[in-house]
Design brief:
8 helices; globular
Length: 126
């Protein structure tokens, strides 16, 4: 089995969604049409913990990584993610992340910062 397939299977097993470029493009097109104020209002209904989960989700963390970072069980994380999705009126984590960006809850990080974070994470696993 190719490395790419194995990586995809691992992503899905960790609770992430694997979307092709066409689907992602359609999703982005749909959310561009939404009013940012709608996203901001919906994000305002999140609890502090749900807000934390959404911010970390937007940072690319898996459910397992969220659980480790917040010292919670994966089941609790899944419950928080479900609550976030329901409150934001979306069906997938990627949609929630788009809402977070649209509402200004999170900002894109410079590539240099992301590279440093990934290097730090890789070193911690050794």
């Amino acid at each position: 089995m190719s490395g790419l397939r194995v990586k995809g299977i691992r992503l899905i097993a960790d609770g992430n969604a694997l979307l092709g470029p066409t689907v992602t493009g359609r999703l982005l097109d749909r959310f561009v049409e939404c009013e940012p104020s709608k996203h901001a209002a919906a994000i305002g209904t999140l609890t502090g913990r749900e807000n934390d989960v959404l911010r970390l989700l937007a940072g690319g963390l898996s459910n397992k990584e969220l659980a480790e970072r917040l010292a919670l069980s994966e089941a609790t994380i899944k419950s928080h993610v479900s609550n976030v999705l329901r409150k934001l009126g979306v069906r997938a984590g990627v949609q929630a992340v788009i809402s977070a960006y649209d509402a200004g809850l999170v900002q894109p990080q410079p590539m240099r910062h992301r590279a440093a974070h990934l290097a730090e994470e890789a070193n911690s696993k050794e």
